[in-house]
Amino acid sequence: MSGPSTNLERSLGDIFRRLIAGTGPISLTHYMAEANARYYAKADPLGAAGDFVTAPEISQMFGELIGLWLADMWIRAGRAEPVHYVELGPGRGTLARDALRAMKRYGLEPRVHFVETSTALKAPQLEAVPGAVFHADLASVPMRGPVLLVANEFLDALPLRQLIRTAEGWREVVVVSEGERFVGVPGMRPMEAALPEARRGEPEGTLIETCPAAAAVLYEVAGRLVNQGGAALFIDYGHAEERAGSTFQAVRAHRKADPFEAPGEADLTAHVDFAMAAQIARSRGARWLGTVTQGDWLRALGIESRAEALSEFAPRHREALHSAMHRLVDADQMGELFKVMGLAAPTWPEGAGFEQS
Ligand code: SAH
């Protein structure tokens, strides 16, 4: 039955152009959701040969320190079993592999659950962690036993909604096509109701981003922590304070690219609103441990002495180990833009690295 070109052979740009010509503009949310689904389904985007490099791919120390943090929480909370390691968007499975190895040294050997939609990434994920069980979303993760959850650079890939204050009031940003290009413009429908109430009065020209899909994930994770016990780490680039302005961007071959060009060919991302994330988690009854910069968090967990210890063990790699550490913690690298947010069940202890200074 397949015609001359199936949907996957046709470019997503062509599909969008036809859709927009036939039925009108699509929301930016729809545009980003389809583009990223296509992008992640296609191939492994991570690493030197791909489009971007993430912290676990830079150094094993990243996953190991996360594993230690989770083990410390679990031990101080009373070592409940069964216990589940859940990772959202595990990429190549590198973070999970490194974290699980560190946990094992402390007697923590959780069941492993990967929430992943990309079929292309499943093979490397299984190779890294052979026993992992796959889930399309959190709903099928077991309901009994504490959850130790990690999401690194996951929330930023979820579809964004942009709302803009025009002379006529608040409108959603929608996507139209202009020849070969796409552009974001204010839609027709009034969107006052979609806006956080406190922000409705902001002046004309203000652009506010929300991420309904990220809000849904936070709500669900917080609910799991409250009902089952456990702790969670969300790591991503973003801001801890409320802000305005567009952060929508594409990353292709390690460079920023135009998100309105070649949808499905580049990774589309937006900054994570950690203020909103914390608010949602708390509203569901979870304990917010804090949101700190990645640099501060990794230093508090002892990345410097870890790099030293590894260097003594493998002196030939000393330079590489230290330069990897600097990429993770330095303010002009990933150390400041990336944030770590910790959550826990209300009955669980405070988390290392989040103490208020
Ligand atoms: N955490 C990994 C990968 C980050 S890239 C790392 O740090 O290296 C984003 C990951 O999220 C990929 O694994 C991608 O396939 C997955 N992903 C993106 N959107 C998703 C969705 N809606 N549901 C589940 N997984 C998703």
Outline of this structure?
This protein has 11 helices and 16 strands. With 357 residues, the chain is an alpha/beta fold. The strands form 3 sheets. Strands 2, 3, 4, 5, 10, 14, 15 and 16 form an 8-stranded mixed β-sheet that branches.
Write up this protein.
This protein has helices at residues 12-23, 28-42, 55-58, 60-76, 94-104, 122-128, 212-228, 274-283, 294-300, 303-313, 318-329, and strands at residues 26-27, 84-88, 111-115, 133-135, 147-152, 161-166, 169-178, 181-190, 207-210, 230-239, 249-252, 255-257, 267-269, 272-273, 287-293, 338-344. The chain is α/β, with parallel strands linked by helices. The strands form 3 sheets. Strands 2, 3, 4, 5, 10, 14, 15 and 16 form an 8-stranded mixed sheet that branches. Strands 1, 6, 7, 8 and 9 form a 5-stranded antiparallel sheet that branches. It has a 3-stranded antiparallel sheet with strand order 12-11-13. α4 (60-76) packs across α5 and α10 packs antiparallel against α11 (318-329). The longest helix has 17 residues, at 60-76. Residues 1-5 have low confidence and may be disordered. It binds S-adenosyl-L-homocysteine.
Rg value = 21 Å
Please bin the fraction of helical residues. 25-40%
**Which geometry do the CA atoms define?**
globular
Oligomer description: single chain
Structural class category: alpha/beta
| N- and C-termini, Cα separation | 65 Å
Strand segment count? 16
Bound compounds, each kind once, are: S-adenosyl-L-homocysteine
Low-confidence stretches: 1-5
> Helical stretch count?
11
Q: Give me the strand/helix succession.
A: HEHHHEHEHEEEEEEHEEEEEHEHHHE
- Average pLDDT taken over every residue: 94
